[in-house]
Amino acid sequence: MSVTSNDIRQAIHTLGLIGQPLCVHSSLRSFGTVEGGATAIIDGLLAEGCTVLVPSFTYDFGIVPPHDPAMRPPRNGRDYASIDATMPQGNNRVYTSEITEVSSDMGTIPATLVRMQQRIRGNHPLNSFAAVGPLAQELIADQRPLDVYAPFRALIAAHGSIVLMGVGLDCMTFIHYAEQQSGRNLFRRCALGPDGQPMLVEVGSCSRGFGQLAPVLAPFRRQFYVGQSLWQVFPSQQALEALVRAIQEDPSITHCGLPDCERCNDAVQGGPILTPG
Questions:
Q1: 49, 60, 73, 140: most buried by Cβ count inside 10 Å?
Q2: Tens digit of pLDDT for each residue in 125-175?
Q3: Dihedral sign, CA of 250, 255, 260, 261?
Q4: What share of the chain is helix, strand, coil (3-state, %, to 5)?
Q5: Are 167 and 25 contacting, i.e. CB atoms less than 8 angstroms apart?
Q6: φ, ψ for residue 77, nearest 5 deg
Q7: Where are the domains positioned within the chain?
Q8: Cα gap 189→101, rounded to integer Å
């Protein structure tokens, strides 16, 4: 039986999410057959007054950092020698919020949302967010290359929630924000700025170990099936408080378990060592 836009609307009613801003991480395939595809999912959310916020990352805008110590901070979750040897050179693309591309692993729903005429997209060449709905401008307005998770501050201020649609905690970008709020520096990567010159931007860490945080979030997690898709819903303020507390008490809780994971190893130690200013 196909999932319809009305099924999405009913789920929003059942979960008490009417009118809320929602950060959505999703797998369209998890639903089974959807009548109207990704557009029907988004339309169902909008029909209940929700604002839909999604990650719309564009990794291909990353460049090799210049050989300048300020552009290559230590403990930054990467082997610079390996990057010099393997990362494609000569990328001269400059990101703007008007582009409609997203990296392939973002999924069909974000790819559909960024092509919507009324969407708002953030100012970040690698990790932009995009939103559509009544609070789209408020959620996106403050995102900057060195303030990547500003949309999450706005989501919390608007009493929003995070919704995982058929995906696990390893897709929950909000946990990176909790890492930052727990005291970790976010990693720095390099992209071209509007002037065509290299600049540093904030990005998150490895997320393969985030499933270990399930018990931390379980007390206020709500679950609901829409078609074959298991939705997990987390109120943003409660999630942040619980996650920050857990990470501060046990920094290794986010580690993916691979001994040679540079991002996890450096994140657990506090992230990159940054030069003031």
A1: 140
A2: 999 999 999 999 999 999 999 999 999 999 999 999 999 999 999 999 999
A3: negative
A4: 40, 20, 45
A5: yes
A6: 70, 25
A7: 5-268
A8: 20
